[in-house]
């Protein structure tokens, strides 16, 4: 028995380590995506100014690569510490949603376009700017909208919370009903003396049904489909709201404000996802 407990303990520890490693990789993947998105928004003037010439584009890319290496040293190379910031119990300690600085070192959000002294009147209609904003909407807004729509719909049991919830609810309810019916049959058999209802097979099936219901409950606690569905639904609504603001905005600053709203929603969704998965346990 002690050996069995030792093996089970080590197996649980191994699973916990693998889950944390997976969470760190997921955090890094999402952070890199958000860094590139935020870097574009924080350097709109530089991008518009650099776009007309190959030399300007090359210089911008070189600067972006240099800034990414700084981000990598501060964030990617300290994945464990960054994950702990999300899993910390104090909700006020949640990491700031904007971690890309602009040319002035400000990390509070998108740079104000007029800060570029080379900006000319009418640059809001610049083709490079329009291409940039259109690309942002198609890649980031649409990409995240597709992500939420995909996981809110039906799909593989292993990855889609809606499918998980539907199947677990159905079979969980069925197992509970079967358990109640079998136990009722046993009680009737004992009270009325019907030997068929008191047969050991009926007792065994009642226990099996109860264990089945308990197992489904364990799976539900581990997969957390309801929590993920709520999170994804809220995130989907926030994406739609921010995208409408972006599309309806006529001034660049209003579009950047919509982008800031979108980035904050993305940060909240990632934060809730990490905490939900970290707290999930398959425990009897």
Automatic annotation (TrEMBL):
The chain crosses the membrane at residues 171-195, 201-219. Residues 94-124 are annotated as: Disordered. It comes from the Bacteria. Keywords: Membrane, Transmembrane, Transmembrane helix. This is SMODS and SLOG-associating 2TM effector domain-containing protein.
